[in-house]
Specification:
By secondary structure, this protein is an all-alpha fold. The chain has a single domain, classed as Glycerol uptake facilitator protein. About 80% of the residues lie in helices and about 0% in strands. The protein has helices spanning about 1-55, 60-65, 75-100, 105-110, 125-145, 155-170, 180-190, 195-220. Helix 2 (about 60-65) crosses helix 5.
């Protein structure tokens, strides 16, 4: 139970501060600022809950760990449930903050992902799927690599956080960067409309990217 509670809290923090930075201060922070908000959230949580749950706080990460037999099916299911509920809490808190600022919640976008008119560069659906698969592949492959060696344990959180930041730098103008189905689902639920209609891309593509990363890692790193 402690593992699931840790994932719940960690995902809530990631979504609140990551999506909150995009929704409230996106125009002043810019792409780099938002990317750092997501990345630093991971760094902070990695050193707080990493020894409890592994600090997945992302269903795509949990899927990769399941494929590589680093967690059970039962744990995977409860991890994903905790992550989704944590993401919903994070967006609920963000919604309450924005509503009490006198801002229009819909205008802020709540950090939701999107394509076509919801993309800053009008990236189409197929482009969005490709981008999310590639970005998630890079992110998950890095996680698997840095966590597979105990000698790297002390710097794993920093490496993972910086990797999340740099995939956001490329992805924000394209799709808003998901690489995390829970992080995408929560704002879509609150916004509805186009965000909810498009969210399937940001659930499916990260899972595909994660599975590919896990399989490639198993192939390249299997013992002789």
């Amino acid at each position: 139970m402690k593992k699931y509670v840790a994932e719940f809290i960690g995902t809530a923090v990631l979504v609140l501060f990551g999506c909150g930075s995009a929704a409230i201060a996106g125009s002043s922070l810019g792409t780099l600022g938002i990317a750092l908000a997501f990345g630093l959230s991971i760094v902070a949580m990695a050193y707080v809950i990493g020894n409890i749950s592994g600090c997945h706080i992302n269903p795509a990460v949990s899927l990769a760990m399941l494929i590589n037999k680093k967690m059970s099916v039962k744990d995977f299911c409860f991890y994903v449930l905790a992550q989704v509920l944590g993401a919903i809490l994070g967006i609920a808190l963000l919604y309450a903050i924005i509503a009490n600022c006198g801002l229009n919640v819909a205008d802020t976008g709540l950090g939701a992902n999107g394509f076509d008119s919801a993309s800053s560069v009008n990236l189409n659906m197929f482009g969005a799927i490709l981008v999310e698969i590639v970005l998630t592949f890079v992110f998950i492959y890095t996680i698997l690599g840095v966590t597979s060696d105990d000698k790297k344990g002390s710097v794993a959180g920093i490496v993972i956080g910086l990797t999340l930041a740099f995939v956001h730098i490329m992805g924000i103008p394209l799709t808003g960067t998901s690489v995390n189905p829970a992080r995408s689902l929560a704002p879509a639920i609150f916004l509805g409309g186009q965000a909810l209609a498009q969210v399937w891309v940001f659930i499916l593509a990260p899972f595909v990217g994660s599975a590919l990363a896990a399989l490639v890692f198993k192939f390249l790193n299997k013992e002789k």
